[in-house]
Structures are given as C-alpha cells and as structure tokens.
Amino acid sequence: MSTKFTKENLNDIIVESVVDSLNFNNEQAVLKARGGAAQLDETSFQRFSNNKVEILKNAGVDESAIPNNVNVENILVAKQVSDLINHSPELREIKNHISNGNIKIDASDASSVLKLNSEKLIKNAASDVLLRVSSIHHEPIGKGFDVSIPAFHGGSIRAQDLVSGLKIAGEYVSDSLLEIKSKVDLKVEDKQTSKPKLKM
Fold first, then answer.
1. Residue 42 and residue 55 in contact, taking contact as beta carbons nearer than 8 Å
2. Is the pLDDT confidence value at 69 over 50?
3. Which of 129, 148, 149, 164 shows the smallest number of beta carbons within 10 Å?
4. What is the rounded distance in angstroms from the CA atom of residue 30 to the CA atom of residue 38?
C-alpha cells in the first residue's frame, strides 16, 4: 500500500537534494585541495538525477509514491534558478524583472524555467519561453545540461552556464522593454507630426 505524497514529502526531497549537492561539492573541494582529481560541482537537480535512490531514502520517500505530474527535477531546477536570482548581486537585473512581473519562474513545463509574463514582451519575442534548462542528448540531466534563451529572434542563444544564461535573459528583457518603449515613442511622435496645422 502506497502512502499519499504530500508537500512535506516534496520539501524533504528538495532539502535532501540540496544537502547531497553540498556534501558532494565539499568532497570534491577536499579532494582537489589534497591534490586529487576532483569532479565538477553538481547542482541539486544534477545530484537528484545522479543519486536519486540515496536522496529518496534520506528523505523517507518511496519513488512509487511520487505522482506522475510531479517532476522533481524541474522543481529543483526552478529552485536553483530562484536561489541564484535571490542571492547573486550580479543577477539584480533579472530579479527586478521578476519583481516587476515581466517574467516568471515556471516549473510546469518539461524544460522551461523562465517565461515572459507580459503581453507586450511576448509579442516582441520569438517565444514566450525566456530561459530553458534541458538535458543534453536525451541523457539524464545529471550527465549535463544546456541553458538556452529561445526568446531571441533568429534562433535560440545558448549560454555557457546557468548564471550567464540568467544574465543574458535579464539583458534581453531590458533591451526588449527599451525597444518597445522606442516604438511607442515613435508612434506618438508620428501622430503629433502628422496632425494638420491650422491656418490663420
């Protein structure tokens, strides 16, 4: 008999994934300090992908209890993005766009994380998906991931990592808002110059 999956179960999985990531990354730092060959740091969503059995065991959750509509990896990606935005001074620009309601964090899609949340921005973009984190070559996300910004016209732009992807996304939204404002200002200016002048 399976038990019902609760919000507390999800929170336990998130906490254990973060703890597992911290432990793994600290082990790699110690190994490197001692002159060993360390692996690259891994995010909480990569650790969940790579060490799911142990994380679920530590969280006290049976994998069969997780409903099909709950994608833990997507939730962990969204949490990672949220944490980076909230705690990285260099990401202030994108944080302001979230605060202003121009974009939103969305973990409901299989790979999109940031979506445009303003009709004027969506109309000006190639896609309503601003930033996407997806696995490489249909492998588990723990093996590696791509960060892309599909909103650009002329093709999606790939970023080197999550932080640089968030910076590019923030700059894209700022530039788009300026472009939209310029178009509105031009329309107003055109209307004013096209008004017939009264003859005296």
1. no
2. yes
3. 164
4. 8
What span, in angstroms and rounded, lies between the C-alpha atoms of 91 and 94? 6
Give 138-195 pLDDT, tens digit per residue: 777 777 888 999 988 888 899 999 999 999 999 999 999 999 988 876 666 666 666 5
Number of residues that this document lists for the chain:
200
Task: With H, G, I as helix, E, B as strand and everything else as coil, classify residue 180.
Answer: helix
Tokens linked to 108: 């409901």
pLDDT confidence of residue 58? 97
* Spatial contact of 144 and 195, defined as CB atoms under 8 Å apart: no
Q: Are 54 and 4 in contact (CB under 8 A)?
A: no
Angstrom distance (rounded) from CA 73 to CA 127: 23
Give the pLDDT mean for 103-122: 87
Q: What is the mean pLDDT of the chain?
A: 88
In whole angstroms, what separates CA 71 from the centre of its chain? 15
Rounded to whole angstroms, how far apart are CA atoms 187 and 89? Answer: 36
Q: Can you tell me the distance from the alpha carbon of 18 to that of 72, in angstroms, rounded to the nearest whole number?
A: 12
Structure tokens given for 171: 């700059």
